Amino acid sequence: FRLGPWLSKDDNDLADRLDQGESLGLVLLEAATWKYYDLLLPSGTFVYGDLSLSVAGQPHNIPPVLTELQCSTSNPLVGETVSFALDVSDPDADADESPFVDYEYQAEWWFEGIQYHRLEPGVTEHGTEATWSPVQEYSYVRAHTYTARVEVVDEWMARSWQTVRIRVRPDSSQPLRVNCGAGRRYDRSCPLGDQETADGRVWLHDQGFETGTWGHAGDSGGNPQTSGSAVSGTDHQIPYRYWRRVRKTDKDQLWRFPVSTGDYRIVLHFADMTSSAAGESLLDAWLEGEQILDAFDAYAEAGPATAITRSFTRHIDDGEIILALRRDADATANAFINAIEIIPTTTQTRTILMEQPQGHVWSIAPVHGSEETQGSTQIFSGLAPATTYSLTPLADGNG
Predict the structure, then answer these.
(1) pLDDT of 282 over the 90 cut
(2) Does residue 46 carry a pLDDT above 60?
(3) CA atoms within 13 A on the CB side of 133
(4) 124-138, 293-307, 335-349: lowest mean pLDDT where?
């Protein structure tokens, strides 16, 4: 058997005794009845065998040496594959061979972040040479900021690691939905914070802004909140049970979204889960520098715990949508926002498949479309053969 992590550098007395040839059995028995009882031997354990066995310690093992974690791109488009690579070496490979394992390294990859070990590694692989160059690929399917991490362990369980920041760009041709109050218990790159409604819409947890992707910024002092109360006026409780407070009247709470040139519909979602009367929570909002809401009162407009939206369209040609929020000066409570949708409305060219079963009735199925329409089929009658038709997709409430 192998001594576990209970024998650390802080246990110099036990380590010295083992190095001096004291029996392993005696050390284990002492540990079991003293400092390390819970870690080694549970209650009722019997110890038997040759307790005179001595052990040679290995106090000078050097952890694996890793080069900087390289990636093919640190700012991929959502869905793009990213390649990762690094070099691993063992400076004392000739001296620390272990009889307990048949490989020298184990690499554990967390492509979307380690999350304080809430998540299992995405990939675990083994290396059997003193020098090793593991390579992995991963496709990010959601636009977030991630801290990709690889940890390498040698045969003596010494561990080293490297990380690299990955900022995934959203696809401007697809809707982007942000649950502003989600993600409170997670860091900004945790898929555990994303949520999906019954209609298939994915609401991304909010995150801080970093260049290359989207996120909230500014200094309004707002933090995310949640409630277990039911929300009226909607078929979906997500995202209305979550919200981000907007606390300050003199500083903006910003959301920044990188987009391609085109037309977009920006939908703001609200449900007042805290006010007891109208006039308490009042919000001012600016879109692309133009004020769009002045003392907006969701309670007065819809009532308590009731969903309500406000929608705005803009043509964007500077590469970014900027939304700024402030608490109105006349408010007696914090302002808030539950969710934000960015929906492209620019006319796009779509590839279609057409079949003519009989007469002039055609079946048209989009090949390239949004997540809601891809693969759907519509029937059109009265279309003449050998005639060119222009199809203009229009965004509705589903994007």
Answers:
(1) yes
(2) no
(3) 3
(4) 335-349
Ordered DSSP codes for 29-56: HHHHTTTTHHHH--TT----S-TT-B--
Are 111 and 142 a contacting pair, CB within 8 Å? Answer: no
Average pLDDT of span 262-287: 96
Q: What single-letter amino acid sits at 344? A: P
DSSP line for 328-349:
-TT-SB-EEE-EEEEEE-S---
Q: For residue 38, report the phi and psi dihedrals to the nearest 5 degrees.
A: -70, -25
Residue with tokens 């010494």: 158
Report the C-alpha gap between 375 and 351 in whole angstroms. 12
- Dig out the tokens for 8 from the structure: 């650390």
How does pLDDT run across 283-329, given as a tens digit for each residue?
Answer: 999 999 999 999 999 999 999 999 999 999 999 999 999 999 999 99
Picking from 135, 131, 120, 10, the residue whose alpha carbon sits closest to that of residue 64 is: 131
Report how far residue 221's alpha carbon sits from residue 251's, in angstroms, rounded to the nearest whole number: 9
Instruction: Please list, residue by residue across 37-51, b when 16 or more beta carbons sit within 10 angstroms of its beta carbon and e when fewer do.
Output: eeebbeeeeeeeeee
**What amino acid is encoded at 252 in this protein?**
D
Burial class (CB in 10 A: 0-12, 13-18, 19+), 96: middle
Task: Give dist(CA 266, CA 175) in Å, integer.
Answer: 10
Distance CA 95, CA 73 (A): 38
DSSP-derived letter for residue 311 is: E
The residue type of 242 is: Y
Pick 362 or 122 by higher pLDDT. Answer: 122
CB-based burial label for 208 (10 Å; 0-12, 13-18, 19+): exposed
C-alpha span between 392 and 374 (Å, rounded) = 15
Residue 9 pLDDT: 41
**In sequence order, which residues have a C-beta less than 8 Å from that of residue 158 and are 6 or more positions away?**
61, 62, 63, 64
